[in-house]
Amino acid sequence: MQPIRLIRSIVTVGGWTLLSRGAGFARDVMMAAYLGAGPVAEAFLIAFSLPNMFRRFFAEGAFNMAFVPMFSKKLEGGEDAQGFARDAFNGLASILILFSILGTIAMPWLVWLMASGFAGDARFDLAVLFGRISFSYILFISLVALLSGVLNAFGRFTEASFVPVLMNLMFIAAMLLADRWGWDMGLTLAWTVPLTGIAQLAFTWISAHRAGFRFTPGLPRLTPDLKRLALIAAPAVLAGGVVQVNLLVGRQVASFTEGAVAWLSYADRLYQLPLGVVAIAVGTVLLPDLSRRLRAGDAEGGRASFNRGTEFALFLTIPAAVALVVIAMPLCEVLFQRGAFGPDDTAATALALAIYGAGLPAFVLHKVFQPLYYAREDTRSPFRFAVWSMIVNAIVAVGLLPLIGFSAAALATTISGWTMVLQLWLGTRKMGDEARFDTRFRSRLPRIIAASLIMGAALWGGSIALGPALGTPLWRYAALALLVAIGMAAYGLAALALGAMRPADLKAALRRQR
């Protein structure tokens, strides 16, 4: 098989992810305008977070971390990869069908675990209703994640990357129809969730079929490969559970402040834009690439992939983090403040966004370091690191809640993210030179940081100069676009002047096979 073109594939996945995040942002802007930060918005956000939380637990954050390396190595070795994928699909589907039924029945308890602050008011009953309607989404989207892993391992990144775009477009269409025909907006959003799951599963099923992978639904078979997959996946599932506990703590802390669940969710959407474009793209491409290189004994190629992937990720991420911190208020004011979303909501969301922005490089580095472990089928080390990260998250979130309020949840997320990065980096010391940073990376990183700080200064000055226009409904979009352009130009010029990235390097990376 042809090797995966690393940077080109990252750009492909990143481009589709950017489109998805843009559509997702449009979805959230519409939700903010229709629902604000009120009870219906908070109830839906909690309900929608439940299947998404368990999706990361079962599929993207755990099962696939074990499945993709094994499947990729079978592809590289010419073994029965299709039979292995079929057995994994049937096994996962049987577990998820049972879990979906149990979760729907236990919805009041799940909502209480997510947001006990809702108990006793209208938000709780609404969240239970919306949750029961939407929980079956976990079945569809988890199977989508497995099929996407198959497509990614085969180097077909475009089809899998389009799936989130489809979901957000369906949400936008549903809200427009609800507004046009006078449907209940909360119920419309809740029913749209499982419908998007069905559409996404159908799309990836057809894409896998066209790629030559045919999955016949049937009863699960406990084969030796499936037993080995379960043993490898178990620590990853536990690690995924730890990550979800962190999210649970954040939701609980936020639920005791009216509106905070929505503020954190909208801030999360903004910082997820660069996070998704860069981190998901790098992680998606790097895991199968490293797995196949390990199977082929290509240590030098593996080190080059790790270093160039990390360099490219930080070149995009560090300036994005600086921008989120420096212009958090203008971003939230221009993008969210309308309709039911007022100035107080803007200020609270901007505070959360700035805190999340400080952790953005850490969240991206998770996706860079973790494939080094998962490609070696080491899922236990990330689990141990995640446990310590969970402890830090809980101490910060709960301990600082009485002092700084809901923002303790965002601060805990950022601090625990950097704690996880430190552990992941220290853990790679035993992997040898192929997991170490090379001379080029060590030379480029300080230049990237310096160029980002120059950009931050330009954004700060630009936000002051454009302040009146940013607060004017007629000019605010143009002013924000100009501010972003100022930042991009400042970073681009500074990066070129300091040698943080050379155009020739990017062109070569897009041309070469690794």
Automatic annotation (TrEMBL):
Keywords: Cell inner membrane, Cell membrane, Cell shape, Cell wall biogenesis/degradation, Membrane, Peptidoglycan synthesis, Transmembrane, Transmembrane helix, Transport. It is a multi-pass membrane protein. InterPro entries: Lipid_II_flippase_MurJ/MviN, MurJ. Pfam families: MurJ (PF03023). The chain crosses the membrane at residues 32-50, 92-115, 135-155, 162-183, 189-208, 229-250, 270-291, 312-336, 348-365, 385-404, 410-427, 448-471, 477-501. It is found in: Cell inner membrane; Cell membrane. PANTHER family: LIPID II FLIPPASE MURJ. Involved in peptidoglycan biosynthesis. Transports lipid-linked peptidoglycan precursors from the inner to the outer leaflet of the cytoplasmic membrane. This is Probable lipid II flippase MurJ. It comes from Paragemmobacter amnigenus. The lineage of its organism: Bacteria, Pseudomonadati, Pseudomonadota, Alphaproteobacteria, Rhodobacterales. The gene is murJ.
